[in-house]
């Protein structure tokens, strides 16, 4: 029986995946598929972007599977490492924008990742709850023990 934080993680992670893919699709439409005057926006850019979106979806669904259905602690570690890499890249791009414009860029492509990182930190918090820790170690609590600890 899955502990409650793992059930919440599975549900909220699916919601986050849907919102993230929707945000990426909106970004692709807004900045890559609309006609513009940029000569470097060749026909392969949207195709490569959709391939990256597909890889993003596959990786996140695999991580969710290895946390919710077949618990592995390495999945949590990979999730945290990818979050750290994404945050480092986002910080770097934000710093570039500040350096170039001498002001904080408040574009949608900067705000949406910030909200996404906040949601992912909440997901990580769920994975470090004591019963989720036991789940990821492969231990499943006996339902009677779970009820006993609930009513103490």
Task: Outline the structure in words.
- With 152 residues, this protein is mainly alpha-helical.
- The chain has one domain.
- Helices cover 79% and strands 0% of the residues.
- It is built from six helices and no strands.
- It has helices at 4-33, 44-68, 73-101, 108-127, 130-137, 143-150.
- The two termini are 21 Å apart.
- The model has no long low-confidence stretch (mean pLDDT 81).
In brief, what are we looking at here?
The protein is mainly α.
Give the SSE map.
Elements: H1 4-33, H2 44-68, H3 73-101, H4 108-127, H5 130-137, H6 143-150
Helix pairs in contact: 1-2, 1-4, 2-3, 3-4
Q: What brief labels describe this structure?
A:
single chain; 79% helix; mainly alpha; globular; 6 helices; 152 residues
Mean pLDDT: 81
Beta-strand percent range: under 5%
Helix content: over 70%
- Any idea how many domains? 1
Shape: globular
């Amino acid at each position: 029986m899955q502990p409650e934080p793992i059930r919440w993680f599975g549900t909220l992670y699916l919601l986050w995946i849907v919102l993230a893919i929707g945000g990426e699709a909106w970004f692709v439409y807004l900045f890559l598929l609309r006609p513009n005057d940029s000569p470097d926006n060749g026909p392969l850019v949207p195709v490569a972007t959709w391939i990256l979106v597909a890889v993003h979806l596959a990786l996140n669904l695999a991580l969710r599977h290895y946390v919710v259905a077949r618990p592995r602690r390495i999945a949590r570690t990979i999730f945290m490492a990818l979050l750290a890499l994404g945050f480092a890249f986002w910080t770097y791009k934000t710093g570039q924008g500040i350096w170039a414009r001498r002001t904080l860029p408040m574009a949608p492509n900067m705000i949406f990742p910030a909200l996404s990182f906040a949601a992912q930190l909440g997901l990580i918090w769920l994975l470090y709850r004591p019963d989720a820790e036991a789940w990821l170690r492969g231990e499943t609590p006996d339902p009677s023990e779970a009820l006993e600890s609930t009513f103490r």
